[in-house]
Task: inverse folding
């Protein structure tokens, strides 16, 4: 249970519901292992814990919102871990190439093996606003998440914004 960080690292970006009259977006991002993480066991419940973690991410194939490309960001999330499964949610703050920020909330489910995420499913993200040109931006979508070497995670994300 104390190896919850990789699980939360997977927790970045959100719902894949049709977004009326939106502009399509797609990109690929890699997140490092957690820079910070804390897990607290639930008293009297073996194999049950809550964990908080923070990860740094870099776009390898940036998506664009309007004409502004994503550059890098930080995801901060919480997971409820029960045995070999978990439910996670959090906030991701993207720094765009022009310095503006994009704010996302996200959620996903995971199954773990030997304390590490084995399968990430239902990874959904929602763009809830930002700063500058992104202040009124809204969007949503999904990511396919693949564990990489050295505790990193690759996110292949797509969705729509307006």
Result:
């Amino acid at each position: 249970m104390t190896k919850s960080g990789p699980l939360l690292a997977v927790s970045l970006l959100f719902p894949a519901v049709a977004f009326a009259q939106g502009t399509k977006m797609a990109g690929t991002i890699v997140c490092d292992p957690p820079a910070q993480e804390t897990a607290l066991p639930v008293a009297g419940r073996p194999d049950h814990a809550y964990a908080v973690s923070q990860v740094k991410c870099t776009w390898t194939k940036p998506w664009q919102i309007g004409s502004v490309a994503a550059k890098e960001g930080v995801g901060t999330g919480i997971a409820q871990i029960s045995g070999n499964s978990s439910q996670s949610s959090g906030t991701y703050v993207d720094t765009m190439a022009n310095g503006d920020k994009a704010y996302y909330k996200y959620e996903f489910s995971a199954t773990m093996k030997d304390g590490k995420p084995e399968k990430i499913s239902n990874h959904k993200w929602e763009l809830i606003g930002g700063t500058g040109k992104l202040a009124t931006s809204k969007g949503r979508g999904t990511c396919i998440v693949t564990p990489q070497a050295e505790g990193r995670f690759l996110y292949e994300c797509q969705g729509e914004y307006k």
In short: The first strand starts at residue 23 and ends at 31.
